[in-house]
Amino acid sequence: MHVHRFAHQGDATVLSDPADLEEHELTERILDIGGRGLLAGLSAHALHNRQGLAGALSLAKKRAAGGESSLPRQIIYLAEGARLASRAKELGLDHIHAHFGTNSARVASYARMLGGPSFSFTVHGPEEFDRPEALDLSGKLALAEFCVTVSSFGRSQMLRWARSDDIGKVKVVHCGLDLNHWKSPPALPDGPLHLVAVGRFAEQKGFGLLIRAFAQAWKADPSLRLSLVGDGELRREIETIISSERMTQAVRLLGWQDEAGVRTAMDAAHALVTPSFAEGLPVVIMEAMARGRPVISTYIAGIPELVRPGREGWLVPAGDSESLAEAMLAAAATSRERMAQMGQSALQRVAQRHDIARSAEILSQLFIRAKG
């Protein structure tokens, strides 16, 4: 299938990963046309599709009243939808897939109402499920051909807001990994337990809890080591705790890393720790499992669908620092042979459930059906 990429906007100056830069070059940014261009496009629809525009304006007012965003912002999204509909016609595109249930699905739904092609959207969570009514997930699903969720948990959350006639539209398509990029994982390293955590240093990702739980476990077993990959608003707090607990030799802050850097950090560790409070289904867990690394994570969202306690890792209640520290110590007490077995189980499970070729095949069949 030929895929034409759209985005609201973009800034190449904040990108450094070669793959990201390549995608930036291949992507058409709707807002690059400017305010006048968007207004002209919307005016053209007013002349040629008054009924469609009237319906879209009515929906914009409803969404604004529901708290999704202000009416002026809804009008901007409506203008983007007009632009998207026009570009789809010019390019001969017969379906639009929005990769989030938030702004992108909003624009795609307006494009559909203005005569654009059929559309579908993916809901990842947790953001969509934090404000389902305000985001009008039910209304977007009613206008869409189908909705994709990345886990059975995600599907259950969408079904909470789906109208009875739309329940059959909600499908599960797992996020996929290009396993060729993650193949041939190295053996587990020698030495005491070395954990790695990857993500934004934010409370939602559990990094504040993580560093406190690690301090507790480290006091019981000073041989433990932890590497943190990422950055964010909690960095200063994390640095303060590391210093106050005198863990500078036990904890390393590796900063933001590209895919190769993340892979290197995972290969140097025995296990991944991801103590999130809210998630969809973290890709970083799939990546660690593809490198044959067991996972310490939380019983939330789609994570238990992938990580089975005692087989691919350890799961603890979200927000429970005592249980998290105990899981770290349990991993430290696990033999290297048993850790390797868990890592092999993790590799097999992610290959079975999250091969990008299989996910793409399922999604392509949904596109074909949507086009009739």
From TrEMBL:
Residues 71-180 form the Glycosyltransferase subfamily 4-like N-terminal domain. It is an enzyme of class 2 (transferase). Its EC number is 2.4.-.-. InterPro entries: Glyco_trans_4-like_N, Glycosyltransferase_grp1. It holds the Pfam family Glyco_trans_1_4. GO terms for molecular function: glycosyltransferase activity. Keywords: Glycosyltransferase, Transferase. It comes from the Bacteria. This is Glycosyltransferase family 4 protein.
